[in-house]
Amino acid sequence: MLKKKKTDNPETPEVDQENIDNNAVQPEEQAEVNTPSAEDVLKEELALANDKYLRLFAEFDNFRRRTRTEREEARKMEGKDVITALLPVLDDFERALKATENATDVTSVREGVMLIQNKLKNTLTQKGLVPMESIGSEFDADIHEAITNIPAPTEDMKGKVIDEMEKGYYLNDKVIRFAKVIVGA
């Protein structure tokens, strides 16, 4: 603010007062010209909000597309480690088939096939596969699938599994295949 100088001339204070009044009016006029109206402020805020919304929507859409692609890739490759572990067993079977073409001794071929079977079982066991032991156990509908009932050979075999038509398996403590069994009645 400007300080008023005291002078003996009475006209000077009036002029100073007019200058002060003019200076006071000018900033108000400038404020009216520079200050946007409430409508303009709201339009700017709306434009900013719309821009922010569009960017957020585009970012979410990209995220959704990227995760979908990653899930598809993971599904395609989820069995890769098991298949990679089984490839040597497949190679052994191919060698065994070639060996059977010229083999005259069946016992050596049988031993070779048994070795391949043991290798396959060990590989699957390492991946978490465990066979069910059903014969002689109590019938349980949660893990067994009864094919038929036959008369029990002894009284204590009633309601128990007498024979197993197809072996059941657990994978990491979950049933992945139910055992198909014959139950004593």
From TrEMBL:
One of its GO terms (cellular component) is cytoplasm. It is found in: Cytoplasm. One of its GO terms (biological process) is protein folding. Residues 1-38 are annotated as: Disordered. It holds the Pfam family GrpE. CDD domains: GrpE. This is Protein GrpE. The lineage of its organism: Bacteria, Pseudomonadati, Bacteroidota, Sphingobacteriia, Sphingobacteriales.
